[in-house]
Amino acid sequence: MTTNFLGIPINGDITRGDARVEQKPIEDLQPILQAVLDDPTIVEFGWRQYTPYFNDGEPCTFSAHGTWVRTDADEDADEDELEMWGHRSLGKVSGHRDEATGEWVTDPYEGPDEARYRRCKALEKAVEGGSFEHVLLDAFGDHANITVRRAGIEVEFYDHD
Question: What does pTM read for this prediction?
Answer without folding.
Answer: 0.84
